[in-house]
């Protein structure tokens, strides 16, 4: 992989870069948001490691400009010391593909980058489609059978997780971690939000796509596959 690391902490950047280089990846660096955005636009990287707190232009603005103004769909792994749900949702809403909260293990950085790049073809289309359900990852517009569906931020995040993993099962713990991070909700929160998602995605259409695997989690399949 050819990877761009946009990180103003030289020690963190060097540690990630050295580790990825030893694994055979090609690594470029930028120490501020403006330089990082320029490199990300004029080059074709397989993935970008993007720090949230950057001088010149923060990571959210870099990601927003990369997606909305430059039209680049390079997978973005965002690094942050902030683990609040609001911060993560803000990143996902402007186009970040994944989050890692500092401190982190270098092995996990490489593992997440590998996952993101293997989904490259799906990302490049700007849309995730399962059957007649379509999720535009840039505009956050969801529609099924040509009918637009209005979802709140948590619903969008849950749907994105399920569609990215389809047809595999996503465990309850994985969904809770993706949406709420380390701030685990009460025991009924996930069930309530899945119920709301089903009401929007399945109920109006008469055929269901979201399947419960009791005691394990959930998965999303084409309606005729359930």
Kindly describe this structure.
The protein is an alpha/beta fold and 226 residues long. It folds into two domains: 2-122, Rossmann fold; 126-225, Winged helix-like DNA-binding domain superfamily/Winged helix DNA-binding domain (Arc Repressor Mutant, subunit A). It has nine helices and twelve strands. The strands form three sheets. Strands 2-1-3-4-5 form a five-stranded parallel β-sheet, sandwiched between helices. Strands 6-7-8-9 form a four-stranded antiparallel β-sheet. A three-stranded antiparallel β-sheet has the order 10-12-11. Helix 1 (10-22) links the parallel strand 1 (2-6) and strand 2. Helix 1 packs across helix 5 (106-118), helix 2 (33-42) runs parallel beside helix 3 and helix 7 (153-165) crosses helix 9. The longest helix has 13 residues, at 10-22. The termini are far apart. The mean pLDDT is 87.
List the helices and strands and how they pair.
Layout lengths: L1 E5 L3 H13 L3 E5 L2 H10 L4 E5 L7 H11 L6 E5 L4 H9 L4 E4 L4 H13 L1 H5 L2 E4 L2 E4 L4 E4 L2 E3 L3 H13 L4 E2 H9 L8 H13 L8 E4 L3 E4 L6
Parallel strand pairs: 1-2, 1-3, 3-4, 4-5
Antiparallel strand pairs: 6-7, 7-8, 8-9, 10-12, 11-12
Helix pairs in contact: 1-5, 2-3, 7-9
Question: What would you say about this model in short?
Answer:
The protein has helices spanning 10-22, 33-42, 59-69, 85-93, 106-118, 120-124, 153-165, 172-180, 189-201; strands spanning 2-6, 26-30, 47-51, 76-80, 98-101, 127-130, 133-136, 141-144, 147-149, 170-171, 210-213, 217-220.
